[in-house]
Write a structure and sequence with these properties.
Distance between the termini: 55 Å
Structural class: alpha+beta
Shape: flat
Number of strands: 7
Order of helices and strands: HEEEEEEEH
Largest sheet: 7 strands, antiparallel
Strand content: 35-45%
Number of domains: 2
Length: 118
């Protein structure tokens, strides 16, 4: 009877450790898995942009989210989900220019390139 109780106790400990490890792995997201894209400066503040998450939609299209980390120590910015079409070189239906025409387009070519990498 004692050996059965010891076996149950060992199995209980192993199961708890396995569940704990699974929960920790499920909660670990963000910078650990983020893929660096580029570094820039806007209004004198340096920042780094990362691909924070991406999902394959099929037909060489991806749904993705970016994260910007500022050197000032302020909270990081997480973008809304966006869609990249790698065959048409578009993000959210807008053609991505190799050379940005406006400031808000800065880094989009780099983001598209990284998103489209598998």
């Amino acid at each position: 009877m004692n050996s059965i109780l010891k076996s149950i106790s060992v199995l209980d400990s192993v199961l708890k450790a396995s569940v704990a490890a699974t929960l920790v792995n499920a909660l670990v997201v963000g910078p650990i898995h983020a893929q660096f894209v580029y570094e820039g400066m806007r209004q004198g503040i340096k920042y780094k942009v990362f691909i924070y998450a991406k999902e394959y939609l099929g037909d060489n299209s991806w749904r993705f989210q970016t994260k910007a980390v500022y050197h000032t120590g302020s909270k990081p910015y997480y973008s809304d989900w966006r869609t990249a079409d790698c065959d048409r070189s578009t993000i959210d239906g807008e053609v991505v220019r190799a050379i940005p025409q406006y400031g808000y387009q800065e880094g989009e070519a780099e983001v598209l390139y990284k998103v489209c990498q598998r």
